[in-house]
Give the backbone structure.
Amino acid sequence: MSAEPYVPATVEARAVAAADRDPVADVLARAFYDDPAWSWAFPEDENRLEQHRALWGVLVGAAIPHGSVWQAPGCAAVSVWIPPGKPELGPEDEDRLVAILEDMLGEGAQRVFGVFEAFEDAHPHERGPHHYLSLLGTRPDEAGKGLGMGLLAANLARIDAAGEAAYLESTNPANDRRYQRLGFAKCGEFALPEDGPRVTQMWRDPR
């Protein structure tokens, strides 16, 4: 007997404006607090939430002008996409991020720089133009309602309408099957430096 097809929650996705940057960064900081990769990159439990807010704030702020940061109603879930041909960080954003990390982490910033380098080295640019899901997170008090996958499904509907591909990295194995149910397939994996956690790469062909 075949399994019933997966039907994600219906979520109305709204593009995020510049004024929403901090609330979106806070959702991501809380969503990734216990993430296997990003908790490893920021090992100080007592400081991680604030450190994550600063990190994600730069990435969110850099993506908002692309019109590619989305939220579910009430900012219950958020997604950060990098459209084809657009940089994840411009030169000024990159300089700001380096300065913030060095100020917050001191020598520990080198571990985070190594994480970003590992992500960039593994990115399958050679596969052609694609939308890159940089970040997807659900506010912990809204977890378990399917809002994150519903937001992702709404985003993918737009990408499908354009006939374009999508790519993401799954830093938590618990999420791999969720992504697969929305059409992503594993296309590789890599390990973070210093015997860090492994990250799964997933690709979704145009529909």
About this structure: The CA atoms of residues 13 and 72 lie 5 Å apart. The chain has seven helices and seven strands.
